[in-house]
Design brief:
The structure is a homodimer. Chain A is built from 15 helices and two strands. Chain A is mainly α. The relative contact order of chain A is 0.10.
């Protein structure tokens, strides 16, 4: 059983819609890493239902990204033009709805327990996306709200995918839930850190796009806590602004001064290490390696 | 059992989301006539599950309208400001997703057969909304495509609601499916006819908004069939345009000349009468009366 089988299953389900132009649009959605499907294949290999289950989860994930990109006015997704950029916001909304509803239709074929877990994750995911937008409206110094939001927006579906597969494979679901949740939260935290430490091609230094878009990610929350009163004010004044070179440099220096990035990396690593420990104890080499690679590839 | 119980159930389910601002936004969605809930209460009265089922269907309907209004750039809904007008497109998309996913989460508590029927209707509804937009891009002379689109966009969920209730009440589902489907198609046809025969407040004559927005509804399809070659061309040339007074009058005259509106009314009435017949035979006075009122109120 392989990712290829999942891709084929997604194609088969989409073709059942019998709508050529929709099939065409969906074919333009880049597949991405298929993290959720890969986890499920590792947790529940050699089980026929895993293929369909993974296809459903990836369709839900794709639907959520279509709507996210409309909401974020994103023109790119995974290095290529986003669906809203290619076909307009309306098509992206509608195709997202079609993908969601087809996924739910297929989900209903699984037992109630599974359907509840996955649909509950989609409730979380939708609320998380909304909370992400809300938190971007003002400077958010609240770590708990940040954590809850990234759990809902990113980790809930990965957690649900892991639990789904654990149920299919008759494995101890709590272990796999924790693994999926930790990976999901760490994955989002790493993404947020990379926005600060990766050089932008055009600038030659980090663009700090998240902060410009209003997103007060974990490093900014810790930085705010560490700064003195005056600098707190300065940081807040730069929130959601187009930063000039010296403002950017100031933020980056302050991150360095207070060792914020390492602190955030360690927090993400703590979650990943807990996930790795669980998988070591469970003898899950493949899942251990997925977690290790997530860190290696990023930092 | 009453509509009030359904409203309370919707409120209860929304409150479970535990998100105050979302509850606030959803409270601003006008309830409308709750046609789907009323049908379900008539078909399956005195059954506890009907209340929750009707709440789910109305939440799905509300979610679809939130997305429709974004897609149509609608500023009004049921006589008040639409959610996208009040809170912006992003909020309308996200709250729509939250309503959809919460409805699906609750739907999963019903037996698989019911969950399949309803989720399949949502697939249809999403495809129908997309097809409505696509058909508006060019002049559509194809009656079959019009019929299929309004079935998917409007009738599929009403049909599913009726079947859902018939299953709950252990009644002959085919009869109620047909009733719901006919009512749904006729409902949309009547809506499309009203756009042509109802005087706009500001103009003192019909605004023909659908045609201006590109929607070639049934009367336009029949008119196109009836016109001579030259007039066919003229009609097509007016499609999707801001019409001046003489162009509007020309279209209205042509509708009169070929008796198009009566023909369309009769087609809608035929569907309604079939629905009424079925309900008479089944001794369903309440459902008969809903169908009769739908016509009386409109024409």
């Amino acid at each position: 059983m392989s990712l290829q089988a999942v891709e084929k299953e997604i194609d088969r389900l989409i073709k059942e819609l019998n709508e050529e132009d929709i099939i065409e649009i969906i074919s333009k959605i880049p597949a991405g890493k298929r993290l959720r499907a890969r986890l499920m294949l590792e947790i529940a290999p050699n089980i026929k239902e895993t293929i369909k289950g993974a296809a459903i989860i990836e369709m839900i994930h794709a639907a959520s990204l279509l709507h996210d990109d409309v909401i974020d006015n994103a023109s790119m997704r995974r290095g290529v033009a986003s669906i809203n950029a290619l076909y307009g916001n309306k098509s992206a909304i509608m195709v997202g709805d079609i993908l969601y509803s087809k996924a739910f239709f297929e989900l209903v074929g699984f037992k109630e327990e599974i359907a509840k877990i996955v649909s509950n994750a989609v409730v979380n995911l939708s609320i998380g996306e909304r909370e992400d937008v809300r938190l971007s409206e003002e400077f958010n110094p609240n770590k708990d709200r940040y954590y809850k939001m990234i759990y809902q927006k990113t980790a809930a579906l990965i957690e649900a995918a892991s639990e789904f597969a654990a149920i299919l494979a008759n494995k101890d679901r709590e272990i796999y839930k924790t693994y999926g949740r930790n990976l999901g939260i760490a994955f989002q935290m790493i993404d947020d850190i990379l926005d600060i430490i990766s050089d932008s091609k055009t600038l030659g230094k980090p663009a700090l796009s998240d902060f410009k878009e209003g997103k007060t990610t974990l490093p900014y929350i810790y930085l705010y806590e560490a700064l003195n009163k005056e600098d707190k004010k300065r940081l807040k004044s730069l929130h959601k602004k187009e930063l000039n070179s010296s403002e950017q440099s100031w933020i980056l220096e302050k991150f360095k001064e207070f060792n914020i990035i390492n602190r955030c990396k360690n927090e993400a690593l703590g979650l990943i290490n807990e996930a790795i420990d669980l998988m070591q104890k469970a003898g899950e080499k493949g899942l251990e390696s997925i977690a290790i690679k997530m860190v290696d590839r990023s930092f």
